[in-house]
Amino acid sequence: MISKIRTDVFDVVRSVGLALPEVEASTRYDGSPVLKLRGCFLAGLATHESAEPSTLVVRADPEERDWLIADAPEIYYLTDYYRAYPLLLARIPRLDRDALRDLLTVSWRLTLPKTRPSTSSRRCRPSSGRGRRATGPFRGDRP
Question: Is the pTM of this model over 0.85?
C-alpha cells in the first residue's frame, strides 16, 4: 500500500490536473493516486522500485523527453524500467506550478487520441497490441 506521505505530495498534481477538461482523480490497483482522462492514464506517482520517491510519471513525446532530461536533469529523469515507454519521470518537489501545468497539458494532449467520447462504455482504446495483455507500467489502462 502507498504511504500517506507519498500521496500527500500528489495533492498539488491533483489540484493542477483537475483544472484540465475531463480529468478525474482515481487510484491504481495498488492504491497509488493517478489522474485519468476519460478513464485513460494521464499522470500518477511512479511506483516501480527504480523510481525515486515523490516522482511523477506522465506521458511524453520521446524526443521532447530527451530534451527535458538534458536541459534539467535535476528535475526530469528516466530509469531503465520506464525508458521503453513514451513516459517521463519528474521529481515533484522540484517542479514549479507552471512546469507542472505544462507537463500535465502535454500528457493530456498525448492521452486524448487514446480515448473515446465519454459516452462510450469502453473509454480507453486498446494499445497497438490488439487484444494482447498489456505488459507496461500501467497495465490496467494500456497507455
Answer: no
Cell numbers given for 95: 517542479
Question: Per-residue pLDDT for 87 more than 80?
Answer: yes
If we measure between CA atoms, which residue out of 52, 51, 50, 32 comes closest to residue 41? 32
Q: 110: which residues sit within 8 A by CB, 6+ positions away? A: 59, 60, 61, 86
C-alpha grid cell, residue 93: 518537489
Look at residue 3 and tell me whether its pLDDT is greater than 90.
Answer: no
So what's the architecture of 4-114 in CATH?
Alpha-Beta Complex (3.90)
Pick from 54, 50, 47: nearest CA to 12: 54
Taking the C-alpha atoms of residue 130 and residue 133, their distance in angstroms, rounded to an integer, is 9
Q: Which residues contact 123 (CB under 8 A, 6 or more apart)?
A: 38, 39, 40, 115, 116
Q: Kindly tell me the sign of the dihedral angle through the C-alpha atoms of 127, 108, 8, 62.
A: positive
Report yes or no: 39 and 124 within 8 Å, Cβ to Cβ: yes
Question: What are the backbone angles phi and psi of residue 35, rounded to the nearest 5°?
Answer: -110, 140
